[in-house]
Amino acid sequence: MTVFDTGDEALDAQDSPRTSVRLADDRELIYFDDEPGHDRSAPDRRPLPPRRPRSELRLDPVMGEWVVMAAHRQDRTHLPAQSECPLCPSADGRHSEIPAADYHVATFENRFPSLGGPPAGGRCEVVCFTSDHDSSFSLLPDRRLETVARAWTDRTAELNRRPDTEYVFVFENRGVEIGTTLHHPHGQIYAYPFVPARTARALEMARGHRAEQGSCLFCSIVAAERAAERVVARSDRFVAFVPAAARWPYEVHIYPYRHVTGLPELEPDERFELMVLYRDVLRRFDRLFDAPAPYIAHFQQAPARTDPGLAHLSIRVFTPRRAEGKLKYLAASESGAGAFISDILPEDAARRLREAR
Ligand SMILES: [Zn+2]
């Protein structure tokens, strides 16, 4: 047996395989397996045309924010039947985006990306959490949580190293209510060629806080919230709470107590602890209305180059469902004025989520 003396990463990689292959149109696909011993070498046999993403970045001169034009996405796959699902493994002569007959976690470049191509740059990846079409993140077993976290960490670190990446955004949209076009359990990763507006604004606030108080804004928030009535759940090293000024009916932020700027800084056992708490929060969302909650979840992490020390890792998840059969819409005040009106007190939302266990 080979003994690695180069630290945890090498041991981790040895125990848990990672296989990079190329799809028929030269996109990269990476398999992350729960354990060694799986053959992921099946070739992609589809006659795919060459891919030419042509996204264009335009700067809104009024708001000073980037808008991405991705007109080539209009023809993307929309709510296909399960027999046509592009995220299920390839089997019985049917060829999906994933050539292997089975997989644990697979991440690949999106065939219909929002970003990418000259001159805009950037990259969009899809992350499939399981080969089981009818599962969801909240149903994943412990071993799979570790593998998904390892995939997210690997992608964050590698995409941050690309010269055209300014910000890596890991996220999941679930539910037709919020516009998901594929049912198969999956998330996405955008490597933006710019720091997106909300993140830039948060970093600006963090810079101000550091100048005035000499400390991390997010560490201060976590210290104030860890004993407050808005806590939903906690573990040894992480806390999940409803923010004091939550915008959405049910919104939870999960933070590490220690100052960590992104997934690559977490130890593998910390990563796992974070995933278990995240899964716990998602299960509570589903129990709120005794039905799978539509939700949006995303990671906030440090930008690739700008002010890396100002950021503080968090997972933020919210559902737009405010009551059974009722959704919160972004109407004039939210969309036009940028002022959110919330129908539910964060303290009440936290209490309901605490009870939904
Ligand atoms: Zn599927």
Word description of this protein:
Residues 119-196 form the Galactose-1-phosphate uridyl transferase N-terminal domain. The active site is at residue 186. This is Galactose-1-phosphate uridylyltransferase. By secondary structure, the chain is an alpha+beta fold. It has 2 domains: 8-196, HIT-like (HIT family, subunit A, 2-Layer Sandwich); 198-355, HIT family, subunit A (2-Layer Sandwich), CATH 3.30.428. 25% of the residues lie in helices and 22% in strands. The protein contains 7 helices and 15 strands. It has helices at residues 8-15, 142-160, 197-213, 217-225, 268-288, 332-337, 346-355; strands spanning 18-22, 28-32, 56-60, 65-69, 105-109, 123-128, 167-174, 186-192, 231-234, 238-241, 250-256, 295-300, 314-319, 321-323, 326-327. The chain has an 11-stranded antiparallel beta sheet with strand order 1-2-5-6-8-7-12-13-11-10-9. A two-stranded antiparallel sheet has the order 3-4. Helix 2 (142-160) packs across helix 5. The longest helix has 21 residues, at 268-288. It is globular and about 55 Å long. The termini are far apart. 37% of the residues are buried.
Provide the CATH top-level class of the largest domain: Alpha Beta
Radius of gyration equals 20 Å
Based on the coordinates given, report the CATH architecture of the largest domain.
2-Layer Sandwich
Number of separate domains: 2
Tell me the total number of β-strands: 15
Bulk shape: globular
- In CATH terms, the superfamily of the largest domain is HIT-like
Q: Would you list the SSEs in sequence order as H and E?
A: HEEEEEEHEEHHEEEHEEEEHH
